[in-house]
Amino acid sequence: MSVPKPNKTKENVIPFIPEGDFYFSKGVEAYQKRKFELSIKWFQKALSEKPNHPLYQCQLSIVYTEIGSYHLANQLLTDVLAKHGEDYMDCYYLIANNYAHLGLLQDATKYAELYVEKAPDGEFAEEAIGLLNVLDFDEEEEEDEWALEEEDDVLIYQETAFYHLERQEWQEAIALLEEMITLFPEFTQARHEYHYALFFAGEREEAIALEEKYLKEHPDSLFSYMNLAVFYYHENEVKMLKHIISLLDHTFPIHEQQKLRMATTFAQIGLYGKALDRFKQLNKGKLRGHPSYYRWYSTCYYFLGDEKKAEDLWREGCKEHNILLEQSPPWQTPEKP
Questions:
Q1: Are the C-beta atoms of residues 60 and 76 closer than 8 Å to each other?
Q2: Does 270 lie in the same domain as 183?
Q3: In which ranges do the TPR repeats occur (predicted)?
Q4: ∠ CA(80), CA(85), CA(90), 5° rounding?
Q5: How many domains does the chain contain in total?
Q6: Are 21 and 129 in a shared domain?
Q7: Domain membership of residue 104 as a residue range
Q8: Considering the domain boundaries, does residue 272 fall inside one?
Q9: 185 with 280, same domain?
Q10: Nearest to 241 by CA among 228, 251, 253, 252
Q11: Per-residue pLDDT averaged across 305-311, rounded?
């Protein structure tokens, strides 16, 4: 790209304003060096110049996938498909791959099949077939499966709620989750996140009552047990907490997001040794998009006596997430979740 020479007449200086392609090239360079947060910033700058550029959106989605922000990645890819579907068939495979990481196996299968159907000789044809083989299962699809448009809306709501929860912006999260519960009553995770936000917004009795009611109706709800463990710990309900810990101690989720939630739950209730064991089993590459990963993993090391590792991990998290720069480590603010 040619750079125009600045006009120096009468002390006037015309600053060089990089165009979208410059930002994009810098984003690619940062991505290749695995500097993902920097890469994201460059790609976002490129998109600010050309908001609907499909290549920019696709490349940014790939970085989001690398750091575990699968919902954000799929939002971008879905937008590209809606506007440029026939020219960007690879988006079907990329979406399928993200859904597989999220544990949404039916959705992953659906998009992988679409890719094989629409692009049988595409760049990812072999990978898509391999993914389908891995995802091959006999579960019947639910009769009331959501339409694609509804799923896209859920992703947007879910990622926005995640944003507020990670930043401990409880009131904003509560308002959004209330909408989700009304619009998507079958998306049960929204209810649990609502109870969690409600508890730390100060409505503790209501949050506990709602979660206990849900658990009574759904006795196998892992999310309920994890929430109640945190609630009972803060309320000093020792007997009930002990019962839940005995259940969680022998539970090992399959999906990475649930594994992370289990690890952070143990950390939040002061069982740092158990939490550390769970954190060590996580796939770090899939969870870089979660500030809570760094927040509670570092906390475990601190309270187990390894302050250097705690501080190193906290600094690494601060490099990945600006929000951590605005916060103190949890061991300095023990009252916060």
A1: yes
A2: no
A3: 20-53
A4: 80
A5: 3
A6: yes
A7: 17-135
A8: yes
A9: no
A10: 228
A11: 94
First to last CA, the chain: 49
Quote the pTM value. Answer: 0.56
Place of tokens 């936000």: 197
Query: Are residues 129 and 25 located together in one domain of the fold?
Result: yes
Nearest to 303 by CA among 318, 315, 313, 289: 313
Are 172 and 122 in the same domain? no
Q: Distance (Å, rounded) from C-alpha 68 to C-alpha 282?
A: 12
pLDDT in tens, 108-144: 888 999 999 998 888 888 888 888 887 764 343 433 4
Is residue 144 a part of any domain in this protein? no
Question: Do the domain assignments include residue 205?
Answer: yes
Nearest to 79 by CA among 153, 165, 179: 153
Q: 151 or 15: which carries more pLDDT confidence?
A: 151
CA 212 to chain CA centroid, Å, is 26
- Burial class, 35, CB count within 10 angstroms (exposed 0-12 / middle 13-18 / buried 19+): middle
List all residues 6 or more positions away from 184 whose beta carbon is below 8 Å from its beta carbon: 146, 150, 153, 154, 157, 190
Lookup: tokens for 294:
């760094």
Q: Does 196 lie in the same domain as 129?
A: no
Tokens representing residue 325 in the block: 């720069």
Q: How far apart (Å, rounded) are the C-alpha atoms in residues 198 and 200?
A: 6
Whether 300 has a pLDDT exceeding 90, the answer reads yes
Tell me how crowded residue 95 is: count the other CB atoms within 10 A of its CB: 26
Distance between CA atoms of 27 and 66, rounded to whole angstroms? Answer: 14
67: CATH:
1.25.40.10
Please tell me the distance from the alpha carbon of residue 309 to that of residue 300, in angstroms, as a whole number.
10
If asked whether residues 205 and 109 sit together in one domain, one would say no
Q: Is residue 122 part of a domain?
A: yes
User: DSSP letter at 260?
Assistant: H
Three-state DSSP state, 245: helix
Q: Is the pLDDT of residue 335 over 90?
A: no
Report the chain's C-alpha Rg in angstroms. 22
Contact 5, 13 (CB under 8 A): no
